[in-house]
Design a protein that fits this description.
alpha/beta; single chain; eight-stranded mixed β-sheet; Rossmann fold; 211 residues
Length: 211
């Protein structure tokens, strides 16, 4: 797939967490319920610009931030547990109830947050994240609106994990992208974007009503 050029509306930014420089890309005007895009082990924040996700979200009126997780992309390594990173990030950026997109490896960052501090998250897009069985007990009964997005050919994180999320978190819906693998957003980008926007639009009104 051809990579799309980075758009001028995307800004490269840094913040400091516990003395480490953390890099992120920003698109759209700051507003309530921003969207945080995490990434898998083979990717970084730039991926969301290359496939057009940041640009699309900004065009749809959202405020999106693609994070280089510690030790990835242009972010320095951080000497705090993965479980604490997103909480520190939200505090530093003063973000309230963001909508979090979490593929693959980033599940080890996002699942601790939504299981321990569900009130701090507006909605959750689980793109075949790792560690769902590990947090099985903590995720039980969490009410965050959740979209479980999987590729039909995922051989790394089984689709059964999507069914487990539905079992654990009652406000979860599942979408399987046909002929896509583990990084389903790379192979089925248009379908991925369609379901992403549809999910955010559906839940945005609910979030605004509860604030």
């Amino acid at each position: 797939m051809l990579k799309k050029p980075m758009n001028p509306i995307i800004k490269s930014c840094y913040l400091s967490i516990r003395g480490a420089k953390i890099h992120y890309l920003e698109a759209g005007k700051p507003r309530e319920n921003p969207i945080i895009l995490l990434h898998g082990a083979s990717f970084n924040a730039q991926t969301w610009g290359q496939i057009g996700t940041l640009q699309l979200l900004a065009e749809k009126g959202y405020y999106a931030l693609a994070i280089d997780l510690p030790g990835y992309g242009n972010s320095q390594s951080l000497s705090v547990p993965k479980e604490a990173f997103l909480l520190l990030l939200l505090e530093e950026l003063k973000l309230q109830q963001p909508m979090i997109v979490s593929p693959s490896m980033s599940g080890s960052y996002s699942l601790p947050l939504i299981s321990q501090y569900p009130e701090k998250v507006g909605s959750f897009v689980a793109v075949a994240p790792v560690d769902i069985p590990k947090y099985r007990q903590q995720l039980q009964g969490v009410q965050i609106p959740t979209l479980a997005l999987w590729g039909s050919n995922d051989r790394i994180v089984p689709i059964n994990n999507a069914n487990l999320l539905i079992e654990l978190m009652p406000n979860t819906q599942k979408v399987i992208l046909k002929n896509a693998g583990h990084a389903c957003y790379m192979r089925a980008t248009e379908q991925f974007h369609h379901h992403l926007i549809q999910f955010f639009q559906k839940n945005e009104d609910i979030l605004l009503q509860t604030q």
